[in-house]
Structure formats: structure tokens, C-alpha cells
Write a structure and sequence with these properties.
With 59 residues, the chain is an alpha+beta fold. It has one domain. It has two helices and three strands; from the N terminus they run βααββ. The chain has a three-stranded antiparallel sheet, with helices on one face. The longest helix has 14 residues. It starts with a strand and ends with a strand.
Length: 59
């Protein structure tokens, strides 16, 4: 049976920047953080507002 460890991160999201993504460096900061966690093996498993939940398999 697979076992997982979990991580919770709070990432501030600015709704204005979502609609103006091309003009805002804010979204690129979020993407950079998410990519960093992905490289560490974390998989996004859920979002609740500004709370992002990640899991990765324990080996």
C-alpha cells in the first residue's frame, strides 16, 4: 500500500492578477513556487481559498 506525506502552503492570490496575467509578475511568482514544489516531488492535491495541499509518496 502506498504511503504519503502531506504539506500545506498558504499562497496569497491576487484576483486582479489572474485576469491580467500577461501584465503581472505576481502569477509568475506563484508558478515559480508551484514548480519548485513539483521538482521536490510534491503533487498538488487540493486548494481551499489560499491554502494549497500537496502530497508525495513516501519511499
Amino acid at each position: 500500500m502506498k504511503q504519503y506525506e502531506y504539506r500545506v502552503e498558504q499562497l496569497q492570490i491576487e484576483l486582479k492578477s489572474i485576469f491580467k496575467a500577461a501584465k503581472s509578475g505576481y502569477n509568475s511568482g506563484i508558478a515559480e513556487k508551484l514548480n519548485e514544489l513539483g521538482r521536490e516531488g510534491w503533487e498538488l492535491s487540493g486548494i481551499d481559498g489560499s491554502w494549497f495541499y500537496f502530497k508525495r509518496e513516501v519511499r
